[in-house]
Amino acid sequence: MKAGLKGFLRVGALLWLAGLAEADIKSSSGNIAFDADANGTQELVISATGLGVGAVPTTNLHVVGNAIFMAGNLSIGTATATSTLQVSGTLGFSTQALSTNTTLTGASGNTVLLVDTTSGNITLDLGYAGNVTGRVYQVKKITNSNTLSVVGGSNSIDGSSVYDLTSSTNGFPGATFFSSGTQWYILSLSTNGVTTWTPTGTSNCMLWLDADDSTKFTLTGSNNVATWGDKSANAYDYTQATDAQKPSRQTAVLNGRAVVRFNGGTQQMNRDLAAISLPFDVFCVSRFHTAPSSNVVVFGDSQWGTSTMFLRHSTTQVKMYGTSDSASIVSGAHTITDFHVYHIRFGKNSASINNILNVDGGTDQTVTAGFPTMHGISLGADVSSNYAPVDIAEFIIYNRDLSSAERAKVRDYLQAKWGL
């Protein structure tokens, strides 16, 4: 008996199998099977059909599980490989049909995604790029109706947050997306029906302040903000002429992007918005950069006396306040010194539109109560008091009541852009 072979006998050039149940190598039904850990599972099977790894082969090479090629090239359909993978023939890809909002995960095994938007607008979330480094998705919208919005989880897509695939007269739009492990990139894009979505892509965008857009600032001294320009079509630029009241623009604070910082002592920006009316939706990406000990105001009405505001409520809560506690909402507990996407809807009691406070797309906190007429918005304070130590990354107002799908789209854009 040759040492190291349990239950086997070598005679000349032949290896005879003793047929022991605990043998490392077994012969049955014309197959040679290797059971390395003697647990009854055949890790390697050789048969007249071929070689099987983790299974009895049904083809020349049958592998169940992952396979690793450490060096050299792999050729399929040809004896010569000039690339790591050389294929002489056709390739087949798994395909998935979608007709509802979908978030892909690392386990999503489909390369081609065919999206039917007949029933309404659909959002496709590619998921976190770091979970699927090297992954490629080919996305095709297969109807002309409605819009397919593609987002990259908390990652950007070619530096943008949302790509819209809309209708076209030149065929259905599509795009190919690739994960680098840190963000998503577009490898190919149809020349029709694909646009980058921005907040002005939803109607009635009244005000859009983006701290990362350096072209919208006039700075004095050490990055002190004299003007923060409005990116909506309304040109509601915010200005501050008094040096002591100017906030500062701080670069590379959140997801490599800039924010506007109010010091919590003297700094604020304020302007009237003549066309503002109830109901309206506000989105604010912000944090308290220093934990406040009092109920300081992130933003409020631009004229003193109406007491409508969004403020710190406790060490773990924020609050929207509308003239009285009966019209106010307190958020659930969260870390207020971290950045969050806050959505605040100022409702209209006469139209039965609730007030809403939402943090990061969680459960809406609501109350049925109207607000007084708003004159405009003060940032960083309640006009001239209750100064907040706050960083504001982006601030958007829509002068109407947005649908739940529209609110979700704005939130997806902000979360992807700011890495939240």
Q: Report the total helices.
A: 1
Sheet with most strands: 8 strands, antiparallel
- Calculate the mean pLDDT score and round it: 84
- The CATH C-level class name of the largest domain: Mainly Beta
Stretches where pLDDT is under 50 for at least 5 consecutive residues are 1-21
Overall geometric form = elongated
Helix proportion range: under 10%
- Category by helix and strand content: mainly beta
User: How far apart lie the N and C ends?
Assistant: 66 Å
Radius of gyration: 30 Å
Named CATH architecture of the largest domain: Sandwich
Write the CATH fold name of the largest domain.
Jelly Rolls
How large is the share of residues in beta strands?
Answer: 35-45%
| Quaternary structure annotation | single chain
What does this structure look like?
This protein has 420 residues and is mainly beta. It folds into 3 domains: 64 residues, no CATH class; 103 residues, Jelly Rolls; 214 residues, Sandwich (Jelly Rolls), CATH 2.60.120. It is 4% helix and 40% strand. The N terminus is likely disordered.
